[in-house]
Amino acid sequence: MSSTVEISLYGHLTHDIVFDGFKQTHTLGAIANLWNTIVNLNPSISINVEPTMIGKALILVDRKSKTRISKPNMNLVENKNINTLINSKWSHIVYINQLPNLEFIKDVRKTSEIVSADISVGGKIPNEYLKYIDYLFISDEDIDRPLSDLVKLVNGWVILHYPNGSISTNGKETIKCETDIIKNLNVLSAGDTFASCFILEMLKGNKIKQSLNTAHLLTYKILKEKNEKNEKV
To answer: Strand 157-162 relative to strand 112-118: parallel, antiparallel, unpaired?
Structure first.
């Protein structure tokens, strides 16, 4: 397949209202988090952004427990003309369990060499569409069944990530990674950052274990720098 772009992003684009304690900020989330990380790490990469839904989310960051709690209204405006005809080396679907219509994934599968997706808090995991997914990202907060059961539905790997690492499996091989925990951390966008770093590392031609380890290191570095920057504001 001759690729037109290296990465295509589908799924939710959100207006996030974020409370860090009583400090309120407004920002773009979901697809925007991945786009921001990708272009910052590789400004020259070709990337297609195709939101399938526009929504809003109210988010509270709990630094002490290193968690975030959100009240989303993800599906306010639907894109009824999703362009799935762009050939891509890698397509990623944001918050696959929150999208009401997933039929477009079948077309994305036809025009993409690799398809990945992530799961957000809330919403039912769409079992029948996981067969189109090569890499599924899910946090320990959101998994609703044993990892060994979930991986049977995926066309490749499930990457289960948590504050101090991840465990990834394709049913035959299992890879465990560990990373440091940053104290008093704002973890907002951590999962999106990790997925972005992993995708970029895999597109370099690295093996999955190396890509996972590097993605953890980069995510740690990016979040630490972001927190330190925000502390100075």
So the answer is: unpaired
Which residues, 6 or more positions from 112, have their beta carbon under 8 angstroms from its beta carbon? Answer: 8, 87, 88, 89, 90, 91
Position 188 confidence tier, pLDDT thresholds 50, 70, 90 = low
Secondary structure (DSSP) of the chain: ---SEEEEEEEEEEEEEEEETTEEEEEEEEHHHHHHHHHHH-TT--EEEEEEEEEEEEEEEETTTTEEEEEEEEEEEE-SS----S-EEEEEEETGGG-S--THHHHHHHHEEEEEEE--SSS---GGGGGG-SEEEEETTT--S-HHHHGGGSSSEEEEEETTEEEEE-SS-EEEEE-PPPTT---TTHHHHHHHHHHHHHHTT--HHHHHHHHHHHHHHHHHHHHHHHHH-
Q: Give Rg (Cα) of the chain.
A: 17
- Sign of torsion, CA 50 10 188 168? negative
For the chain, first and last CA: distance in Å?
A: 47
> pLDDT tens digits for 66-113?
667 778 888 999 999 999 999 999 999 999 999 999 999 999 999 999
Q: What percent of the chain has pLDDT over 70?
A: 90
Please, which pLDDT band fits residue 150 given cuts at 50, 70 and 90? Answer: very high
Nearest to 106 by CA among 4, 199, 10: 10
